Amino acid sequence: MAARFRERGFVVRALLSGLLALTFVPAVLAAAPRERQGQPASSNAPKPTTVAAPLPPPRPAALPTPAKAAEPASVETPAEPERPAGPPICYAVFAERGGEALPTPATETQRPECAIEDPVTFREVNLPDGGKVTLDSAITVRCSFAVELAAWIRDDLSALAQKENTRLAKLTGVGGHACRPRNGVAGAPISEHASGNALDLFGLAFQDGRSVSLAGKEPELKPLREAIQRSVCGRFTTVLGPGADASHKDHLHFDLKERARGLRMCQWAVE
Ligand SMILES: [Zn+2]
User: How many whole angstroms from 35 Cα to the centroid of ligand 1?
Assistant: First the structure.
């Protein structure tokens, strides 16, 4: 009797679980009977008054997770939004004007209070005829200043040298970036040198060995100094030289400081 019930129970269970298992993959269907066959048949089991509930079908989670299913998701990760690549356009203009950029030393960018916008470090400007003009030391300045300086060297100063029947070779006594107040005076407003927007210059040297000191007093070189003054005051918004104040009696300072109403300063009493 008990055996008959078990037999009937088995048949019903098999039918029901077969129907349920049909909703799962064939692997589940194949595994289910093996599990039930493993059940011990106990003669002490209470007589079933109702049809035994079918064993729950194996959970789909028990199936081995197909490893490849997750991979396409990572492949389809949306690409990062496109960002403009490369240096600011100013760097390209600088190179176009003959500037030859060098790596900027880390020491030039370490102090945030004297940060330079788009810094450019360079020592040479290439001329259209293949020649080079060298600065006696490398300077680091703001790119917009570097562009104007390269153009001044390449277009204006080179043309002045040609009129002197020579070629420009070097800028001497150059000073660019300096993290300090104006004229080095404590408490004074911050210098344009601190933002890489200025240059100090003592003189020019030519390929034929001649040179001109901008603070010099040789009468024969006065026309050349006056021509240099016209060109530098035409390009830069501040020019301070001998005669401006005590700090500039032996060199020329020029920068691209922006002032209200486009005010410019050209203070250099050429001798
Ligand atoms: Zn200066």
Answer: 91
